[in-house]
């Protein structure tokens, strides 16, 4: 998946210069024209196109120039290069994990005053967890478009077939592991232990669990166990994975391949988790709301979502993207008018219908536009139930690098069984310098 | 004594083009045979057929009594000098000369010694350390010669080796080649389009035309008794004058519907005077070649060239009388091109 | 300035302008950027040689230099051997030679990204045709020899081999150049060797390769220059630098990630400077070697064709 994204980003990079240049050459734009830079999959981009069209229909004379990037990383590149080239888009959509650099470096226009003066948008319309992630030095820098989190997607048909009880709210990590064991089956339907291809006796037909070894997958579990991943979430200087609470979670997580419920690295390279789940070859899959759109095309079996398992208390990780306005924009009023529409009930409902995001606007999140009765997943409500337990990742400008660096080590540890002390020490060693280089974003 | 080289009914065609049409040729052991002909006559094809570079489509090739028709070039024990590319540019002169020995697995030192010896034979011992691009054209062909004779092959094949050299060097080199041949006595086939080179070098000359041999004879014979009208006109500088003669001619052993008369420019005598000894000709142009001059005349509407001592030359516009001694007259059958013996010939002999 | 020179300058001008504007100026800007911290959002800051100091400590850069050198060591000679082999095989007019030539050229005509995606499928450890082929005749997911098939995307050594393997099919350009060079060799050189009874091996060693040597030398230099960049698309598309941490991370990928994923343009510029330096060193070494061989007559650099 990662690769495809990287590839797409490169593809669009080739056209990026052309697009932004064309935008900058637009010297005398109509007063009510606004440019919006977004990233996403084809269906997401289609939703943004629909949103722009609806806005243009609702407010005669208004025009939205949509600039499409293929991935979050590509979007970052394009925002930075276009700001440097004096051709910044008026609005862009960005994940809060990446928003820090733009806020700290003064590239964004604060929205606090506009929000207070607005007749249609109000602070209280949105989930505070999402609003908080985009606040910097007391100013609301961007307005959240969505508020997603991790959930366990599960193949309901398999649960029924093997008479395994479906996950319930408040289930423990160990419950999930046991469930995964019960669902790891060979072609004959017998429970088996998955393993390395060298050691595997019977080929596994269905794996119990699919989960990528990443820091952002571990973080909510560590929080749930009463630990934290960094020393100071507001101004982090190092990882704190050596605490007993974190250590236990990491140990449990790295046990998964030994217990034999997850696909091996070779199997994942052959077919990634998402495709595996869609093919009915993995019973449970930990992911955010974003896979929903793709899974809605599944016809071979029934599926649903369950809450993330926990240790001691409920905890989950915030995924959120927001509309930000560039300071360099000369059409901020027009941009704001577009925002007022995009985040209004009809605008937000339009985006919610893609299924890919959990709306940041409470009224839309609790409406059928999101909960979509009659359409999988039936338990969309769990995304709303977990909101009070959401926590953001630490805010530091070099966070993307930290995710990549820890990802490499965790992937190796997960698939090759490195000793836990070495893993924790390696994670620390690989990230110290990156923390040092970063600047706190709040 | 076996023949040095014998070709029997050799045909050679490449695709749609037929280069050789039934060549019968015997080269005696130790003989230097020059193959003479214009470009396109099949001279190079003949050499390549002997060398085995192009497979013959008919006939046999025998070297020293051994039928080599089916053998690959490397098994025929022949050596060849090409017109322009006889040396490998990445090798020194010494390595180029030693190339054949090295290929055959000779010891490096033995090969080097032989190379030095061969180089001395052709007088290029001082060039051994150089590379081809550091040599002049003459030096290059000298080295090429050393390369072919180092191996002591059964037959030397030389394909216009002097064609790229200037006139003076060409004359000197051909003398040297003749000298080397006289010393080594290797059967040699030498291809050229230059008739003076052919006359000077060859023990015998084979005149080639359109893939066929017109005549094989000593230079003297080729000069004095060209077997065909074509040989007569090709050999000589310029070639024989040919004039439509009388006909038909019927004599014992000769039957020709029409006859052409030939006379070499050297045998045309011009005289200006009150008493004409022959028909009158009008001088059109005069080329002076040092001691001699070529006089271009129109005699009875036919162009005739005469070679006269330069000091006796007429001037353009002069009318002179043209005469030829009877023994210098040649006759050819207009239809077949074959030579017709004249009564005077017997007398000269 | 005489007329010929003026014409020459005029003809070169469009190229020179392009060269200066599109290559030299950006290159100079990049070199300057290497001494700054630049994210293109805030104004950049001069930080002296700090980027270069960090280069020496960056594990990704260390691994990438090693990987790039190993790629160079395997890919460049293998590519050349294959291209020369195919060119010598296909230079004659023969049945199917034209088709075969086109087939050699074809992989190079595929857009790099598509080529990478194709290999992602080819090298798929279980479903990929390459391993399917290797597992023919074997049992239980093993090859006929009872060994496991290469784990192209998960084993570091196999992944590096996979990247080299991918590079071995895009030899069209090299192939065409060698083919042309071979066709330009005088037939007399071969006839000369044939008359001496040289065998195929001797012809190759004593005639063909020495005569092609100047061209081959240029091709080696060119391939070396390009190899540092050539590994980029495959690694981005097929392995993403993995298996972790840095099995197939090459300098070009480090540069791309630092610049376009982490917005560290200054540091990425320092990586670019390192690449340039390494390339220069590699070329210098090769040039020296070639000069030495040439002076010993091993290869014919500077030799001219005789005749005419």
Radius of gyration of chain A: 22 Å
Portion in helices of chain A: 40-55%
Number of strands of chain A: 14
CATH class categorisation of the largest domain in chain A:
Alpha Beta
What's the overall geometry of chain B? globular
Number of helices of chain B: 9
Give the rounded overall mean pLDDT of chain A: 86
Give the DSSP E fraction of chain A (strand runs of 2 or more residues).
5-15%
Largest inter-chain interface?
Answer: A-C, 42 and 35 residues
Structural class estimated from helices and strands of chain A = alpha/beta
Contiguous runs where pLDDT drops below 50 for at least 5 residues of chain A:
1-29
**Count of structural domains of chain A:** 2
Average pLDDT score of chain B: 86
At CATH level 3, the topology of the largest domain in chain B is Rossmann fold
CATH architecture grouping of the largest domain in chain A:
3-Layer(aba) Sandwich
**N/C terminus separation of chain B:** 30 Å
- The overall strand count of chain B is 21
CATH superfamily of the largest domain in chain B: P-loop containing nucleotide triphosphate hydrolases
Look at the helices and sheets of chain B and give the structural class: alpha+beta
Major β-sheet profile of chain A: 5 strands, mixed
Any overview of this molecule?
The complex is a heterotrimer of chains A (about 450), B (about 350) and C (about 300). Chain A contains 20 helices and 14 strands. Chain A has about 450 residues and is an alpha/beta fold. Chain A folds into two domains: about 1-150 and about 320-390, Periplasmic binding protein-like II (D-Maltodextrin-Binding Protein, domain 2); about 155-315 and about 395-435, Periplasmic binding protein-like II (D-Maltodextrin-Binding Protein, domain 2, 3-Layer(aba) Sandwich), CATH 3.40.190. Residues about 1-30 of chain A have low confidence and may be disordered. In chain B, strand 9 (about 205-210) and strand 10 form a beta hairpin. Chain B has two domains: about 5-230, Rossmann fold (3-Layer(aba) Sandwich); about 245-350, OB fold (Dihydrolipoamide Acetyltransferase, E2P). Chain B is globular and about 80 Å long. Chain B has helices spanning about 45-50, 95-105, 110-120, 135-150, 165-185, 195-200, 220-225, 230-235, 345-349; strands spanning about 5-15, 15-25, 30-35, 60-65, 65, 80, 155-160, 185-190, 205-210, 210-215, 240-245, 250, 255, 260-265, 270, 280-290, 290-300, 300-310, 320-325, 330-335, 340. With about 300 residues, chain C is mainly alpha-helical. Chain C has a single domain (about 35-295), classed as Orthogonal Bundle (MetI-like fold), CATH 1.10.3720.10. Chain C has helices at about 5-35, 50-55, 60-90, 95-110, 110-120, 130-135, 155-165, 170-185, 185-195, 200-230, 230-240, 250-260, 265-295; strands spanning about 35, 45. Chain C has a two-stranded antiparallel ribbon with strand order 1-2. Chain C is globular and about 75 Å long. Classes of the chains: A alpha/beta (about 450), B alpha+beta (about 350), C mainly alpha (about 300). Chains B and C meet through strand 6 and helix 2 of B and helix 9 and helix 10 of C.
